[in-house]
Every structure is written in C-alpha cells, then in structure tokens.
Amino acid sequence: MELRQLRYVVAVAEHRHFRRAAQALGMTQPSLSRQVGAVERELGAALFERTARGVVPTAAGAVYVVHARRVLEQVEAGATEARRAARGQAGSLRLGFVGEALIELLPSLLARFRSAHPGVVLECRELSTAQSGAALLAGDIDLAITRGAPTGEGAERLTAVPVAGDHLIAVCHRGHPFAGQPAISPEQLRGQSLIAAPAADEPAATRVLAALVKAAGGITHARDVHTVIGLAACGIGVGLVPSSVRRLGRPETVMVEVDPPLRLPDLTMSFRGADISPALGAFLDVTRAHCPGTGKRLARVMPRRHQKAG
C-alpha cells in the first residue's frame, strides 16, 4: 500500500463524493475509484458505502481513515522537520569550551544563535583545550572553543579559526604596591608570589607563563580565573589572568596591565571540516556575523554549500 492511496481514501472520506474528491486531487473519477477499490481488496473490507448522493464510510472505513490521517500527518511532520534540519533550524549541536570563553565570547554568541535558531538543541560541556581537541576528533562534540588550536595526532583533520585575542594582566589586592601603578613590567613580577590558571593541562597557555613562573617567588596553581581573583583578593599573591577577565574584578582587587604585553594563544574555534552539519553551519554563520574580524577567516575555510548567500 502506498502513501498516495492513503491520501485518496482520506480525500473520499472528507468530500463524501468520488467526483468531488477526484477534482480536489487533480485526477479522474475512474482512476480514483480504481485506487480505492485496490485498497479495499488488499484489506478485504469495504471502506465506503456507495449511495446515489455520494459515499459514506463503513465501520471499517471510519477506523481506517483515522489511522490513515495519522500516518499522513506523521509523514508530513517528518518531512517538515527534515527540511528544518537541512536548513540548520533543527537538530543538535554539541559544543566543548574552555571556561574563559564564558567571560566575553560565548554569552552573546550563544544568545544570538539561540534567538536565530531556537529549534536547535545546544549541548554545552566545559572541557580543557586538550579534552576538547580529543572529543572533537573522536566525534563526541561538533565544535570546540579552546585556548589555541588543538594539537596532536589527527589535528590536521580539523579546521581551526581564531575568534578572540588576549594577553596577560595582573590582578592584586588593592593594598599591594602594584595597585597604584598603571602598568608593571614582566621584570617586576620576578620574585612575586604568583597565582596562575589554567592548570598544566592547558599547555599552550602554560608556555606563556613558564618564564614568569620559573622566576617567581612562589606559584599557586588555581583551577580557573575565578579562583585566581579570589586568592588575589585574599592577598595570597599576584594573579595572572587574561585581559578579558577585567569585568570579573572584585572590590578588593585591582587589575594592572603588564607592559610590554604578554600575548596568550587566541581563543580558537575548531570543527571537523569534512562533515559540517547544517546546525554547525548555522552556528558558523552566526559567528561570522557576530565576531568582528572572524567572518572573513571563516568564509575562507567554510565549504561553499554551508555559506549563506550574501
């Protein structure tokens, strides 16, 4: 039995007349009668009682029409969802990100994406740079935002685009000698008790800190930038944090520039270039529009079929 035959039966039931149903379907009455008769023979039951004024569903016909409508509605719903998924308006997107991406980049970017694509289910997981790279290569996530591009075996299969630059600044208690200075030099950090994050599983950022840590008067490894600021507020030492952390300051702390700047690896957006899903393509389109300077980079690496016209 074919879907078109279900439509024929439903049309006859709705119009209660073969001729009117045939006209609505754009076919001849004899053809419609033959198709409905074929369904009745396959079922072994009459679906309609023919009268001089039209047709009336039999008991079997009334039951069959209910199920036929249900099947047709499900098929149409499936087709609608499939079209929405193909346009990036449905489906899911699995995102892995380092915690620092939540300071400036992700809040506005995710809000904009959710507004434009409310039907896409977002699954977000905070992961280290190393964990995100591994999860992306294993197919466990679709997109990663990391401190620097993922490295290691298989990383050549990934497309990585910088989305935000950053540099180190110092955070100290407001009673610390650094608090009254507009900027300090890297040399002034020598011998200081330093507080640093991320931990050793972020090798790219750790390399930037290595020289300072080696010359420090002591080092406290914090889990994240919030802990760094909290410890600095307690007077434990001088914290080293990305410049984007400025907005997270506390009344007890002061943020101080380090001059010359010590640049951190960029926040980088990575994905498997060979298998971009429509939902991921939609997210990249939103990123292109949202992140100044990133749009042209993404346009160069995104497959043409995933780029919106204009």
TrEMBL record:
InterPro entries per record: LysR_HTH_N (IPR000847), LysR_subst-bd (IPR005119), WH-like_DNA-bd_sf (IPR036388), WH_DNA-bd_sf (IPR036390)
Span of domain HTH lysR-type: 1-58
Highest rank taxon of the organism: Bacteria
Gene3D superfamilies: Periplasmic binding protein-like II, Winged helix-like DNA-binding domain superfamily/Winged helix DNA-binding domain
Residue stretches in coiled coil: none
Listed CDD domains: PBP2_LTTR_aromatics_like (cd08414)
Keywords: DNA-binding, Transcription, Transcription regulation
Cleaved signal peptide residues: none
PROSITE patterns per record: HTH_LYSR
Database matches in Pfam families: HTH_1, LysR_substrate
Family: Belongs to the LysR transcriptional regulatory family.
UniProt name for this protein: LysR family transcriptional regulator
